[in-house]
Structures are given as structure tokens and as C-alpha cells.
Amino acid sequence: MIQLSSLEPKIVWKYFEQILDIPRPSKEEDKIRNFLISFAKKHKLEYKVDSAGNLLISKTATKGFEKKKVVILQSHMDMVGEKNSDTVHDFSNDPITPKVEKNWVKAIGTTLGADDGIGIAAQLAILSSSKIEHGSIECLFTVDEETGLTGAMALEEGFFSGKILLNLDSEDEGELFIGCAGGIDTIAEFKYKTRIFPNRHLAYKIEISGLKGGHSGDEIHKSPGGNSNKILNRFLWNGSKKFKLRLSSFNGGNLRNAIPREASAVFAVPESKIKEMETYFKEFSQIIKDELSYTEPKLKTKLKKVDKKEIVLSRKSQERLLNTLYACPHGVIKWSDSLEGLVETSTNLASVKFIENHKVKITTSQRSSIDSSKIDIANRVSSVFKLSEMKVKHTDGYPGWAPNPNSEIVKITEKAYVDLFKVQPIVRAIHAGLECGLFLQKYPELDMISFGPTIKGAHSPDERLDIPTTQKFWDLLLDVLKKIPEED
């Protein structure tokens, strides 16, 4: 197996390889933080940790750069833990196993964690080097970005001193990001009634898999029909009408910010309807594959007989649940009128879970670059749930980051890109959420930009990091640091 540290730039890949060995799922950042603190001590760098667990490591300017403005380099410590259903992996304890395929670094059966491990690696490469030229650096490592941005929300005023922030958490090389969407989660809980598994019925399990999934901000527009929960529910909804299936369980999706790739359900079918059900399953599978042949070529459907369960949902509870999931919106709600190609508002039907005490938990997330539209789509989703008398709650949400194309750091980075690569970068906003909006609430004077190498399939086991663009990301970062102006 190829050593990542043999790739270029070697210093960045060396640290990325070390980061892959450290389990760091959201809300379990102790191990990666301890690694970073040990790194700071080894290199005799000042560090501090705030009450939320965010870490700041500082490095003084190199000779001749002492008068330059202080720059904050920022990434998040946590990663999304998603795996294929046939992969055995404990994200709390097991290292990530990488592999190289042509120009890409991937993980075997799991997310890679390049989001945002590659940002951390770049920070460590700069902090450890005695040859890289830069002014005073403050490296900010935040916690729990992926499941709620709680580290950025709890960031204390005065924790850092810099007024220029480079967010190293973007995933499209050649694009410089100067704004992002805000977001909120809408979560419903449904208490269902049960009945004993009916006589003269057999139990079957249907599985939907092979979808691309991905980041619910970056990827939400790429496959409008590619939501395993919606596909599965469509089969169940029709099956309840065509051959009187009785639902026993439904399990689809995992994370609020990942488009669900896999879903399964167990249901009962009258013995007299078995042939009709199996025929419809084949028809349904072909219909879905035809509909999604372009966007989801690896879609798989599977049906198998299983042992009978003890209970099924009452007919009324089943009807309420399946109708709600059918009506619940998913995907792009509106494209931006002001920025071509930017999704303005979206919603993700992220997960459907049968939990204890005969309850179903439905998790959705909404995003918009316009705060009022974010609230509007969250209320729309909430209304669908409330029609079925579900209990609904919203998270506090997080603000967007309004673009400022005339900012000093944007102009510096844009010029650096042109000087290095002789092409004009795309300067735009992103539909995904970044921590920058939250930073602005407590540090309104910050001048910010976000950039990074190309990462595809983030938040899914298809996540992959482009090797050549990692070199370009590194070159750009170093050149920007050289071009930072001196203090007035």
C-alpha cells in the first residue's frame, strides 16, 4: 500500500496520514485535541483551550515578516462517520484506512475525513516548518462542526487576536468562497400504536442501497431523486394500497447533514398476496432505476424473506407515517436569483429511525442563504409533521455568511491565484454551511475567505481527496501568507 507521505506536498500528506490514525467523530474530539496539544508542546508553541474544547495554537512571525497582520488559519477537528453497511468499523476507536486510486485518496468502506482533516494537516505543516515565510499565525481548531457547529457557537470573545481568517474547509479547488448558507434542523417524533404480527402473513425485508448520498449542502442538487428514505417510502406507500402490507420497522439514513444513501424496512404481507408483491417489487425496482439511471447508476434494490416480527404498526399509525414521509419535501426548494448556479434554499430528509418506546424519529435539515427563507422552509416541513400530530422541535440553527466581494483578503487571494496558476478563480458563495457566519457574530471585524482542495462525496463512504489539487491548495495558502499586508 502506498504511503501517503510519499505524495506531494510531502509535509502536508505526512500530517494527514497521522490524522487518519486518530478517531475523531463529532463530539469525540479528545483524542485529536490531545494529539494537537502534544504537537504544540513538541514544537514549543503557545496554545490554549476554551470551555467548549476549541483549541488555538499560535506561532510567531518568521524573520522579516514581523510587521504583517496576524492571520487565523481555521479548520474543524471532527469528521463525519459514515460507512457502507457491509463494513465493520468503530469510528470511536478505529483508524481510517486510506487507499490511492489514480489521482484520488479514498478510504476503504468509510468516510475519509479529508473534511476537514486536510485543513488540519496544512495548519500543522505550517506550524512545524522553519522555512515557510509568514507573519504571526493563530491556528484555530474548532469542535463539533459537523453535527451542530457547537464549537463555533460557543467560541469566546477575545480567544484570538487576528482580523484576517482563512477558513480551510472548502471542497472545490479553483473556487474561492466568500459566503455561505445558514441552516436549521427540524426534528419530529411520532408515537405509533402497534398490533400483533398478523396471522397468515409472511415477513420480508426491502433494502435500498448504492446511492451517492453526500453532503446535504454541496450535493443536494446533483440527484433530486437520490434519497433512500423517499425511495423506500414510495414502495411502502404503494404496497400498503396494492397488497395490504403491514409495516414493522423502517431504518434509513444516519446524519443530519448527509443525504441518505441506504434504507431498509421490514413488513408483513398476506400469504395470498406474496406473488403480487414480488411482481410489484420487480416492477418498482425497474421504474426507479429507469428514473434515476443518469444520476444514480449504482442504485440497488433487494428483497428477502426474514423471520416474523412480534408486532406491526396499527393501520392508522402506518397510514399517518407513510403519508407524512411522502409529503415531506426533499431537495432544492429555490435557486438563487442573484448568483447563477447557487442553490438558495433546500431541505434534506436525512434520517428515519424506529427508536425505543414505539417511536419514530425523523430528522431533517434546512439551508438557505436568506435567513427568512431558511425559517420559511423549516416551518413548511414542520407543518407537514404537525398535520400528523407529531411532536416537532427546531434546533437553534446557525447564520449565513453574507458575501463581501470587495474585502481585502478576497482581493489578495484572487491575485495570488492568478499569479500562481495564470487563470481566474471563481469567486462565489456556497450552499453548504461554514463556521464563518458564527465567527462574525462575535468578531464582526473579521475579513474572511474559504478555500481548499477538491473533495468529492463528502459525508459518504465515496469521499475522496484529489491529489493534484492538494498541491495547488498548499501553494495558494503559502503565497497568500506571503502577500498579507503589514499593519497600518
What would you say this structure looks like, in words?
Helix content is 30%, strand content 27%. The chain is an alpha+beta fold and 488 residues long. The chain folds into two domains: 4-181 and 400-483, Aminopeptidase; 184-394, Alpha-Beta Plaits, CATH 3.30.70. Strands 9, 11, 12, 13, 14, 16, 17, 18 and 19 form a nine-stranded antiparallel sheet that branches. β16 and β17 form a beta hairpin. The mean pLDDT is 95.
SSE diagram, text form:
Elements: H1 10-20, H2 30-42, E1 46-49, E2 55-59, E3 71-76, E4 98-101, E5 104-107, H3 114-128, E6 137-142, H4 150-153, E7 164-167, E8 175-180, E9 182-191, E10 194-196, E11 201-209, H5 228-242, E12 246-252, E13 263-270, H6 274-291, E14 300-306, E15 311-313, H7 315-327, E16 331-335, E17 343-355, E18 359-368, H8 371-387, E19 391-394, H9 408-421, E20 426-430, H10 436-442, E21 447-450, E22 455-456, E23 464-466, H11 467-483
Parallel strand pairs: 3-6, 3-7, 7-21, 8-20
Antiparallel strand pairs: 1-2, 2-6, 4-5, 5-23, 9-18, 9-19, 10-15, 11-13, 11-14, 12-13, 12-17, 16-17, 17-18, 22-23
The proportion of strand residues reads: 25-35%
Number of discrete domains: 2
Q: Supply the CATH architecture of the largest domain.
A: 3-Layer(aba) Sandwich
Provide the CATH top-level class of the largest domain. Answer: Alpha Beta
Quaternary class: single chain
**How would you characterize the largest beta sheet?**
9 strands, antiparallel
Fraction in helix: 25-40%
Please give the radius of gyration in angstroms: 24 Å
β-strand number: 23
What is the arithmetic mean of pLDDT?
95
Low-confidence stretches: none
Q: What is the rounded distance between the termini?
A: 51 Å
* CATH homologous superfamily identity of the largest domain: Zn peptidases
Structural class determined from secondary elements? alpha+beta
Query: Please, how many helices?
Result: 11
